[in-house]
Records
---
Amino acid sequence: MAFAVGAAMALSRLPLQPILGDKSPFIMATPGMIVAAFLGGLWPTIAVGLIGLWVGQVAMTSQGGPGLGPVGIVIYAAFAVVFAAAGEMRQRGVKRARADATRMAEMHLRLVQVARLNAMGEMAGTLAHELNQPLTAIASYAGAARWMAHEPGKAPEVAELLQKIADQAMRAREIIGRIRGHVSGEELALQPRSLAALFREAAAIATPGGMRPDVQLRYEFEPAADAVLADQIQVQQVMVNLIRNALEAMGETPRQRLRIGSRVADDDLAEAYIADSGPGVDPELGENLFEPFVSGKADGMGIGLAVSRSIVESHGGRIWAEVAPDGGAVFRFTLPRVPEAAA
Ligand SMILES: Nc1ncnc2c1ncn2[C@@H]1O[C@H](COP(=O)(O)OP(=O)(O)OP(=O)(O)O)[C@@H](O)[C@H]1O
Ligand SMILES: [Mg+2]
């Protein structure tokens, strides 16, 4: 294309010869070379230059003239080389810019894919993590029910266990609904709730077989901080995750103490805390404690705290960890308080 335009210009200027004089074919081949250099680069420029030279020589000698001498040819060739070199540089620049743009587009695409994979990985991890607990509870209730079914007169207990199984199945469904809602950006189901009531239920959910007898559990709720605005399923998930972490951290150590309580943080926020007598959070986890897939346990998924942070922050609160005076871990989070009048 560049070649065609350049050649056409070199040839079309022939009729101008009477105005420009003898050397007109060479002078007029120059714009042709410039166009060829601009559009095509090295080879189209050289081709147009050669055609211009040939046409010029034919035009001049056919009129009895001497044609272009060696000096003229050298000057003409010098012009052609300059144009060709400039054109080639421009073409290379264009090609490089185009390749860079393509590479950027590819990288962006890959980044989007990685982000999506990450989000999917996190969602899969969250689902596995949060469904693990109701499913374990269902299995343990079902085992107890099967065992009791053989005993005479245990029908009421079996019915109670079946009810618990149904409750846990419902809870699993709500968890799936919440995660689906979270992914599609749905709103929270915020309602005034009692922190104490939420915590007591969460403690029962976290320990389907009952609290271990060697754990001494103490509640320290402050009435003024009790009414909070919360999505029950979500906030209980935070509590369950923190209670399970505390119990796992204390393991089989003697004198296990778990304190769960609340206090007024400020006018707008209530603060809830869970303090255990375990070894405390490994300082190596440091800042990354709440990041997904960060775990200090051999069999830990590292999802619990990441999910908890996401839930607390979506409520407008904050979650953090502290070291208790006796060396154990304290996890605190804040939630919006319900204004006194509405509570
Ligand atoms: N109460 C605690 N005492 C000491 N360390 C803790 C406590 N709570 C959390 N941690 C540390 O923080 C890490 C991350 O906790 P997180 O709940 O996110 O993941 P996990 O418990 O390892 O696995 P999972 O996803 O199954 O809950 C834990 O592995 C543990 O090392
Ligand atoms: Mg955990």
---
Amino acid sequence: MRLLQFSTSHYCRKARLALGYKGIEYRVENLTPGLHALKLKPLTGGLTTLPVLLPEESGQPEVVADSTRILRYLEKYAPDRSFVPEAESDRRQAWLLEDWLDESIGVATRFVYYDYRAGEGKSIDPSLSSQLVINVVRRQYKITPATVKLASERLENALFILSIWKERPYLVGNSLSVADIAASGLLSPLALLPRYRQNYPWLFDKIEEIHRQCREPLPPGF
Ligand SMILES: N[C@@H](CCC(=O)N[C@@H](CS)C(=O)NCC(=O)O)C(=O)O
């Protein structure tokens, strides 16, 4: 299999965690931001976001675009090491959390992270090229002080909900699920922000543990 990705994207990390948990062999192909759309549009029928998985196997789909679809596909492709709970109520809950983390919380993480990298956290990489990319991303996603404030309030609520992790090993049921994978990947950029490291140490312990279970190297900040 081949995973088309941006090496630093937290959505691509989510897909790699899933591939790693299933123990599937794959190669990554890093695309260049900006030029990526030219390659993706004809492959995906118009979608321009990464990750995109190319199974490259006969009898399998040619393209699986979007991290949630990739998780669903991998569960069908390799059902043995399952990350979807068996009990129906747990299954519902796991996919509900996965979708919320993907559509709302992953976006909020992006806002808070890029705002930090352009301000207080500029010293992480003050180079012109890095700051240029950060500013393009901020413009592309309309990251402004007002939208960052909303995003950080949304993250605070998310961390209240995810504090289930303080009491139980997994967000849903008794084994790792798509909810744990999504949360671990999509919140991982916060590891570079001292205020999250200080206030939510349990979050980063859990992200670290899930990366270990998924055999995925830890992101910057650990
Ligand atoms: N819901 C999508 C979101 C993916 C996403 O937002 N990817 C970003 C990188 S973190 C991207 O590819 N942006 C480029 C673009 O929008 O053209 C998924 O889960 O795959």
